[in-house]
Amino acid sequence: MLAHEQLTSGPSTLELRIASTASRPSAERVLVLVHGLPRSFGMGRQAAALLPELAEHLANESGWMVATGTLSGVGESTGTFSASQWLADLGAILNRLHTPDHWISLAGFGFGGALALSTAVVDERVRDVAVFATPSSMERWCGDAESFHRVAANAGVADASVQLLDPATLLADTLAINPLHAAAMLPPRRFLIGHGTDDAEVPVNDARELFAAAEGRAELRLIQGAGHQLRADPRMVATLLGWMDRHR
């Protein structure tokens, strides 16, 4: 079953979908899927498109509640992308899902993995994190301010009524996220790092750097021949399900 809600995050209204199953209920376990920032023209509308289907599949196979929110400026959510706004969005999603009985895990894709790590190290409600195709260095991933601003503008992660931050401010806001620092701070909480060996957008060495930052206190899974788009890769799905199952 896939429920649809809307919630408020500052100036934005977010789309939230929550998958659950009656056949294998494990209501105390909650996984939140976090989409990334698209870098292709016009793909902002589609950045989270595959995640509701993935959420349903994971919920049916694991018995967990699996949620995915569409962050500001993406899909039907209002507002505009910035790293700080997306962190606030993720916080709003956690506020909606958290109860004292819930064990919350995050699984982030691409830049969403960096958001998940940054959130986890300051929010004790997050018990575990899995990241896939996640950059270890925002400086390398973003590039210069003008290029990064152009990528975000072309992707379409702002609604028509709200402008993106100016290039310098947008870059500085994003560089405040430090995945390597977060990876070092996360253990002893469980930490899964998945990456495709043929990822042309985020080199596989970024996964190794995250693993090294965690001083080996993480699971590293390299998916041979896989590229950047891991959300639909059955090997990634199997890896994530295995990680979830080991919570039992």
Description:
By secondary structure, this protein is α/β, with parallel strands linked by helices. It has a single domain (2-245), classed as Rossmann fold (3-Layer(aba) Sandwich), CATH 3.40.50. It contains 9 helices and 8 strands. The chain has helices spanning 51-62, 83-97, 111-120, 138-142, 145-155, 167-175, 179-185, 205-213, 234-245; strands at 2-9, 12-19, 29-34, 65-70, 103-109, 126-132, 190-196, 219-223. An 8-stranded mixed β-sheet has the order 1-2-4-3-5-6-7-8, with helices on both faces. Helix 3 (111-120) links the parallel strand 5 and strand 6 (126-132). The longest helix is centred in the middle third of the chain and has 15 residues, at 83-97. The chain starts with a strand and ends with a helix.
List the helices and strands and how they pair.
Blueprint: E1 2-9, E2 12-19, E3 29-34, H1 51-62, E4 65-70, H2 83-97, E5 103-109, H3 111-120, E6 126-132, H4 138-142, H5 145-155, H6 167-175, H7 179-185, E7 190-196, H8 205-213, E8 219-223, H9 234-245
Parallel strand pairs: 3-4, 3-5, 5-6, 6-7, 7-8
Antiparallel strand pairs: 1-2, 2-4
Low-confidence stretches: none
Radius of gyration based on Cα positions: 17 Å
What portion of the residues fall into strands of 2 or more residues?
A: 15-25%
Which shape, going by the Cα principal axes?
Answer: globular
The level of helicity is 25-40%
From the helix content, strand content and strand pairing, which structural class follows?
A: alpha/beta
How many β-strand stretches? 8
Count of the separate structural domains = 1
Strands across the major sheet, in which order?
Answer: 1-2-4-3-5-6-7-8
The CATH class designation is: Alpha Beta
Separation, N- and C-terminal Cα atoms = 22 Å
Helix-strand sequence: EEEHEHEHEHHHHEHEH
Number of helices: 9
The H-level CATH homologous superfamily, spelled out, is Alpha/Beta hydrolase fold, catalytic domain
CATH topology term: Rossmann fold
Named CATH architecture: 3-Layer(aba) Sandwich
Query: Main beta sheet: strand number and arrangement?
Result: 8 strands, mixed
How confident overall, as mean pLDDT? 92
